[in-house]
Amino acid sequence: MIEIKKPGLLTTVQDLGRTGFQKYGVIASGVMDQDAHKIANMLVGNNEEQPTLEMTLIGPRIVFHEDCLISLCGGDIGPQINGQKVRLWRPIWVKAKSELTFGSYKEGCRTYLAIAGGFDVEVVMDSYATYLRAHIGGHKGRALQKGDQLSLKEKSRLSGKIMDSLKQPDKPFVEAQWSIPIQTRRPSNQRIRVIEGKQFSLFNKDSKIALFSHPYKVASQSDRMGYRLSGSALALSEEKEMISEAVTMGTIQVPPDGQPIILMADRQTTGGYPKIGQVASIDLHVLAQTKPGEEVYFEKISFAAAQRLYIQKEQRLYEYKKSIQIKYR
Amino acid sequence: MKWRFCPLGDQALLIELGDQISSETQQHIQMFSHFLEGQRLPWLKECIPAYTNIAVFYDIWKVSQLCGKDQLPYEFVCAELHELLKSVDIQTHLSSRKIDIPVCYGGEFGPDLDEVARLNHLTPDEVITIHAAGDYLVHMIGFAPGFPFIGGMSEKIAAPRRKSPRLQIPARTVGIAGMQTGVYPIETPGGWQLIGRTPIELFTPEGEMPTLLRAGDRIQFKPISFEEYKQLEAEQS
């Protein structure tokens, strides 16, 4: 069992999202940074469907009431155990009564905490994800609060083996000496690749150029639902009434004021604004780690390249998973 | 019957079945999405039917294991869908469900009823009569869980959205925006003109069906008194 001593800015239980209910208007929710979530689970011997804690900018204070195997992946918001710095992207054995806190912020925006076995929270509509507005999923349908206690589920055999390999009962925690290689998880720069959206051709020439040549600043009203951008205004060549249709994570829509919005994990299922672009899935994790106030640049990528690169990335993740399984066979 | 495919991001596509909102297109969309979900396709994650198209979300990793090295997952999915859709008998008539939604109009539940009446030079009672007389079709569900996009409202009671949206609209409130009417299933901010409230839950996450309404349903609003509202609300919980 773990206990929340301080909740942090926004700490929620998330998974890969609620699939199959969007036709009822139920939003997908789920983690903002899928790569960090998947790797975090992989490092502790969980399958990628297990829930993780998504911690935003100011991390929580958490006490572990039993020996645990954890990992922290994603943005670096300064994790420490019993006051000592811990590194991201690797398994960590933690002794009972140890305390996880977050100190000085370094980079990124969201850190994911995975724990061997996974958090024992209720499944609502096939998912663990917290849907804040409808008060369902996760822990009591809300963000974690002081005093919340989360039980853990039975560990997998793999988790047990990783845990045993690290355990040193005279220490408060032990980090593994291996980690998932860096290039899969961090962008080399902030240039975000974008595919043309369905209504791209309806935008005027200046807008089509501006999107890929000018920086856009992530506005302060950005959240898990969407990133509001401010920069060169975008406009259609001529006004056109849109008919509402499905949208997805990374959809860049342009409301009448011309300032684009990128839809994120808590987006509504459908939308009625013209879509100028779509962030390629390979770069969604970059966006998920971008903070309000930061600037982003977009770069055009073909649809075919976006699909091919995504498969390559998934292939790499699959290989990491296999090599962890082999290492601890 | 003709369809077109177009990508929606790199892990979903749209099956376009029309350019305009119509009950015929709605029928085709219902039929196709129903059919696709019944096929148990290993790569199909989910479908979101809308006014004129169906979004199909696919598992790009699974597709990549099934398709050839030179074929894009998108091309594979389009080819599969094309074959499947050809086999659908569009003559079959899908029967739509008929659902009554009791509404207590006006008062604290419908603070904008008088405003809607004034804008249309009607009395509040006339607005209620017209609203309740309509035969409505649920074209799609979106915006919020179980929120129906309904067609078929009389233009006699149309009213523009409020200039400043309300920050919180209580769950189950019935509203009007332009030529549309709808019911808010959960508490949300919104700019609709509020005319009443139903005691019936539209979002039931614990139930077998998470929402009362589905695309393709026909609905009718039944005026009820405050006492009947209270009674029905008590029966629900």
Specify the helix fraction band of chain B.
Answer: 25-40%
Computed Rg of chain B: 20 Å
Helix share, percent of chain A: 10-25%
Secondary structure class of chain A reads alpha+beta
Q: DSSP strand (E) fraction of chain A?
A: 25-35%
Strand order of the largest sheet of chain B: 7-6-13-5-12-9-10
| SSE arrangement of chain A, N to C | EEHEEEEEEEEEHEEHEEEEEEEHEH
Descriptive account of the structure:
The complex is a heterodimer of chains A (329) and B (237). By secondary structure, chain A is an alpha+beta fold. Chain A folds into two domains: 183 residues, no CATH class; 120 residues, Cyclophilin. Helix content of chain A is 18%, strand content 27%. Chain A has five helices and 21 strands. In chain A, the strands form four sheets. In chain A, strands 13-20-17-18-15-14-21 form a seven-stranded mixed β-barrel. In chain A, strands 7-6-9-4-1-11 form a six-stranded antiparallel β-sheet, with no helix packed on it. In chain A, a hairpin with a 7-residue loop joins β14 and β15. In chain A, α1 packs parallel to α5. Chain A is elongated, with a radius of gyration of 20 Å. The model of chain A has no long low-confidence stretch (mean pLDDT 95). Chain B has 237 residues and is of the alpha+beta class. Chain B folds into two domains: 83 residues, Gyrase A, domain 2, CATH 3.30.1360; 139 residues, Beta Barrel (Cyclophilin), CATH 2.40.100. Chain B is 27% helix and 28% strand. Chain B has a seven-stranded mixed β-sheet. A four-stranded antiparallel β-sheet of chain B has the order 1-2-4-3. In chain B, β3 and β4 form a beta hairpin. Chain B starts with a strand and ends with a helix. The chains are: A alpha+beta (329), B alpha+beta (237). At the A-B interface, β16 and α5 of A face β3, β4 and α2 of B. Chain B: Keywords: ATP-binding, Hydrolase, Nucleotide-binding. Chain B: This is 5-oxoprolinase subunit PxpB. Chain B: InterPro entries: CT_C_D, Cyclophilin-like_dom_sf, PxpB. Chain B: GO terms for molecular function: 5-oxoprolinase (ATP-hydrolyzing) activity. Chain B: Its EC number is 3.5.2.9. Chain A: Keywords: ATP-binding, Hydrolase, Nucleotide-binding.
